Amino acid sequence: MDKPPVSAVDHAAHTPYSAPGAHASLLDALPTDPAALSAVARNVIVHYRASGEELPAVTRGDICLRWIEDILSTDQARHPEPLDRPREASARVQGCCRDHTLLCVAALRQHGIPARSRVGFAGYFTPGWHHDHVIVEAWLDGRWRRFDPEVAGPLEGLPDPMDIALGRPRGFLTAAQAWVRFREGELDADTFGVAPEVPMLRGDRFLLEEVIYEVAHRFGDELLLWDGWGRIEPPGAGVSEAEAAWADDVAALLLAADAGDADAETRLLERYRADDGLNPRDAVIQASPFGDEPILVRLARSA
User: Fold this and answer.
1) Least enclosed by CB within 10 Å: which of 18, 50, 94, 192?
2) Phi/psi zone of residue 188: left (φ > 0), alpha (ψ -120 to 50 degrees), beta?
3) What are the pLDDT digits (tens) for 188-217?
């Protein structure tokens, strides 16, 4: 099959988040091969806390750049040259998995390739732990193929980061998969979160909220991982049985859509558009991984 199955949205079309604006030519020049494209993403963006590099405090605000056009503008202000020209780590745009993925998704869409970000959990970074994570899913070689642009080579539990096999014990679980397995008693929610050393950002509430992020990203709202809206609560909140049942329904639609059920994806999109618990509408509360005070951010932007 050369074309992807019929979807409720066109994943080859830019969203406001992936639209490059004045920087379209930079994306035109990029490769579409996952390994080569991922190398460019790592060259432009450095992980704000997991790179092992000493990064300047003056550029830490980069992590809240939500539009790829702004990410590229920031990069070009520091490096007015093609994106594959080497950048010193300390001068790269500070970001995270969401940003590496968004750059790859934007480049693929720029070349007419359907691509989307997938929100879930990676079990291949820390033994016994599942970090919240965002990876790329692109229609390549006649199938949806997942790759992790942050990972340069094989890891234990991740033999091929450029073609992530499904269902591996220490691999990648979508948020919906993790939620359903938690509800079925197959996994310990307290091993899913930001990091083992962050006790407030883990557990059943965290799993539920990642399902919300997964839906938003699927339908083109590729929000920051510290944005809050709808049913996303401050850290430490619990999960009522009514909320759990609500998440069960949403996760079931996500899994059915992934299995190729076009009607389920259409119903999920309709629910996303109608449900204030899922849809950010025109504003989010933007928190900060550095502990800065949350702020209200308006999302007015057009593709």
Assistant:
1) 50
2) beta
3) 999 999 999 999 999 999 999 999 999 999
| 119-150 burial: b if 16+ Cβ within 10 Å, else e | bbbbbbbeeebbbbbbbbbbbbeeebbbbbbb
pTM score, whole prediction: 0.97
In 3D, which of 281, 225, 280 has the Cα closest to residue 66?
Answer: 225
Contact assessment for residue 205 and residue 247, using Cβ atoms and an 8 Å cutoff? no
Long-range residue pairs from 122-126, CB within 8 A, at least 24 positions apart, any chain = 122/148, 122/158, 122/171, 122/172, 123/157, 123/169, 123/170, 123/171, 123/172, 123/173, 124/151, 124/155, 124/156, 124/157, 124/158, 124/170, 124/171, 124/172, 125/155, 126/195, 126/196
For 90, the 3-state DSSP assignment is: helix
